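Table S2 (continued). Query chain:
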Amino acid sequence: QRQHHVHRRQHQHEIRQPHQPIVYQATGRGGVASARCRRRAQSPAEVSPDGSIAGLKASFVNVGGIRTRYYEAGRGEPIVLLHGEGWSGHSSANVWSKNIQGLGKQFHVLAPDRLGSGMTDNPKDDKDYNYLGEVEHIYQFIQVMKLGKVNLVGHSAGGAVAFYYWKKQPAATR
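Corresponding output:
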């Protein structure tokens, strides 16, 4: 007599709580939890009420009427780090907190919160809720900070802003 083994297919769903380790929950048929396991995750840096994080002091500057938060470190050629995501509030310059000090050993690093993200104000006009509005905001930020020609580094959607900036202002980029 042969035995048949029935294997229930399990799916892993990632469950993420803010500022907690990543938890994977394996579920069986019908979504019923059948097992839990933890994957080791780095603990996030704590953000202070003034916006400082990981030993970096948050600074604010007025960019065309938009209060803009940024982090700054180092000396040398200017490099501007543009975080990913969009206006959802899921990303900010905080994503660069573990890179800024290291890059600051060779560059003058600035990492602003993009328009409508992090602790930077929303656009004043609905027409600026797009990449061109963000490019203009970053251009004005660079002018206010008197950086001259800059290196731009963008992560995810920040890469798109960096690309469009370069297309619109090729002479202002290195």
